[in-house]
Write a structure and sequence with these properties.
26% helix, 7 strands, 5 helices, 187 residues, seven-stranded mixed β-sheet, Rossmann fold, alpha/beta
Length: 187
């Protein structure tokens, strides 16, 4: 199967699909952090290349419910939210038969533009990790993910991260257990 992993610099999801024997390529405006097939640039440059599946991780900075209180108070954030929601919607409408788009819980303004809420919410603790981080999935022609390894001890480590130069990148990375479940169940 030919898999496009959109808006991924880490290579975690891409490598999970490669490990299952699929051709997978990540794409991001950032360089990849792991060696492997990667297109550094605009996702729309490679969207029409005959993909069987796309797993996308569009930026959530202005779409996430956690930042809704700053939308109108800071200059430019509302416009960034509208642009981000349209980017998300364009990915949902991509000419690919099977699509999964991952993002945190969205605020109502983004949902209004996108046109619907998520199909599923998963947590890292459902896939072998001891953390909590609500991860929403919008699915097109794909089944919901089935938990693979439910962990009892759970900690909200992600939102407790201190400020740092890499905080945004670290918070955005997909847990390997979730990536492996995607490759196993959707590949």
């Amino acid at each position: 199967m030919k898999v496009l992993v959109a808006c991924e610099f880490s290579g975690v999801v891409r490598d999970a699909f490669i490990a299952k024997g699929h051709y997978a390529m990540s794409c991001d405006i950032l360089p990849t952090e792991r060696p492997g097939p990667h297109h550094e640039g605009d996702i729309f440059d490679v969207l029409d290349d005959g993909w069987d599946l796309m797993v996308a991780h569009p930026p959530c900075t202005f779409l996430s419910n956690s930042g809704v209180r700053w939308l109108k108070s800071q200059n430019g954030r509302w416009r960034n939210m509208v642009d981000g929601a349209h980017f998300f919607k364009d990915m949902m409408m991509a000419p690919i038969d099977r699509i999964a788009i991952e993002n945190p819980i969205m605020h109502k303004y983004a949902v209004d533009i996108i046109g619907r809420r998520q199909d599923q919410v998963v947590q890292p603790w459902m896939f072998g990790h001891g953390e909590t981080k609500a991860t929403c999935l919008w699915l097109k022609n794909l089944p919901k993910l089935t938990p693979t390894d439910v962990v009892k001890g759970r900690e909200g480590r992600i939102w407790k991260m201190p400020p740092s130069a890499d905080r945004q990148k670290l918070r955005s990375m997909t847990y390997t257990g979730i990536a492996n479940a995607m490759a196993e169940q959707w590949g």
